Amino acid sequence: MFSSQSVRRRGARATAVATLAVALCATLMTNNAGAIVNGTDPTECYPFMAVIPESAPAQGVNDGNCGASLIDPQWVLTAAHCVRGDGLELEGIVRIGSEQRKSGGTVRAIERTVVHPGYANGEGEGPNRDDIALVRLDRPVSQEPVRIAKQVGGPGTPTRILGFGTTVDTGLKFAERLRQLDTRTGRAAECAPGYADRTRLCTISRVPHAMACFGDSGGPQLKKDGRGRWELVGVTSGPGVPGVACSAGPGLYTSAPAYADWIRRTIRHHT
């Protein structure tokens, strides 16, 4: 047991660490020179944002990444196609809580990946199905996880997406600093027939000619709760219409609320 004095000391240290983290984040934001296609620099800190370095040499990707969201001190949520695929090579680490792709935040080794058993890659001929996976870190982190929303919200709900993906429709040069884009939930009919459903969210940019692109996969789609706090509604999965440039949109996102029970069961089973 801890004495009341030791508890106070630990509380003071925790407060100091939190204050330092806020100050550091503010510094990073003011120094962010820029890096989702037609997205913008971050306007606030996202301590739950994570990046998974990886490559796919056969596809010409030697310095790539996927996004992810910290949903538990020792687990991040990402897209299944980010951790399973022919020729995909993971570096074996996750970086959490940094606005920079290759520095800052907290780095942890990947201990285990759990892909949804129903996952199937659409291979460009349709949407990915059950495109969701969990990654267990070798040790917990101190960053605050994002909560999974209970509901997505109806069409027109304001959302925001984050990512370290490419900033142009062509080429595979990834952003070195985090980008954000304001979006909204769309109607199923705003994506291609058969693409959006209860488990796959049609997502529309609120900015012309802008949307997630290569390297943004696995990253979060967020909305505000009643108290103004971010909560997770989607996981970047792919385009919402086949055969168009990223910036033409729409995007397709795996619904995090639709898989909340699977997520909870998986974490309990592997803890």
Labels describing this entry:
14% helix, Thrombin, subunit H, six-stranded antiparallel barrel, alpha+beta, disordered N terminus, 271 residues, single chain, 2 helices
Characterize the structure shown.
The structure is a single chain. The protein is of the alpha+beta class. 14% of the residues lie in helices and 32% in strands. It is built from two helices and 14 strands, in the order αββββββββββββββα. The protein has helices at 4-30, 260-269, and strands at residues 49-56, 61-72, 75-78, 89-90, 93-96, 106-115, 133-137, 147-148, 158-163, 179-185, 200-205, 220-224, 230-239, 251-255. The strands form two sheets. It has a six-stranded antiparallel barrel. A six-stranded antiparallel barrel has the order 9-10-11-14-13-12.
Helix amount, in percent?
Answer: 10-25%
Could you spell the SSE succession in H and E letters? HEEEEEEEEEEEEEEH
Low-confidence stretches: 1-24, 26-35
Mean pLDDT across the residues is: 88
Going by CATH, what is the homologous superfamily of the largest domain?
A: Trypsin-like serine proteases
The strand count comes to 14
Strand content: 25-35%
Number of helices: 2
Termini separation: 24 Å
Number of domains: 3
Helix/strand/pairing category: alpha+beta
Could you give the order of strands across the largest sheet? 1-2-3-7-6-5
- Radius of gyration computed on alpha carbons: 18 Å
Overall 3D form: globular
CATH architecture of the largest domain, please? Answer: Beta Barrel
Largest sheet descriptor: 6 strands, antiparallel, barrel
Q: What is the CATH class name of the largest domain?
A: Mainly Beta
CATH topology of the largest domain: Thrombin, subunit H
